[in-house]
Amino acid sequence: MNLGHEDEQREFKKSTSELKEGVASIAAILNKHGSGELYFGVRKDGEVCGQDVSESTLREISQATSSPPSIHR
């Protein structure tokens, strides 16, 4: 299955190992456009590669997207 291509409102990440980058991307998309899509388990060419997701992975994604970013100085 192919989801098409990335654009200014759609971002693909191969796995949740790219969670930090994904959160930064969706924040930028939302700031600019007010809506957008972030997919995990999809290669840059739009091909779905899938990913096994555990409860802890879902919790990690939820926390990363609902918490304000930490600032390190």
Uncertain segments of ≥5 residues (pLDDT<50)? none
Strand content: 5-15%
Q: Name the structural class.
A: alpha+beta
Major β-sheet annotation: 2 strands, parallel
- Taking the alpha carbons of the first and last residues, their distance comes to 43 Å
**Helix amount:** 25-40%
Main sheet: which strands, in order across?
A: 1-2
Number of β-strand runs:
2
Order of helices and strands: EHEH
Q: What is the overall shape? A: flat
Mean pLDDT across the residues is 90
Rg over alpha carbons: 13 Å
Our count of helices gives 2
Report what the structure shows.
It contains two helices and two strands; from the N terminus they run βαβα. The chain is of the alpha+beta class and 73 residues long. The longest helix has 15 residues, at 19-33.
Task: Write a compact overview of the structure shown.
This protein is an alpha+beta fold and 73 residues long.
Keywords:
2 helices; 73 residues; two-stranded parallel sheet; alpha+beta; single chain; flat
What's the layout of helices and strands?
Layout: E1 10-13, H1 19-33, E2 37-40, H2 55-66
Parallel strand pairs: 1-2
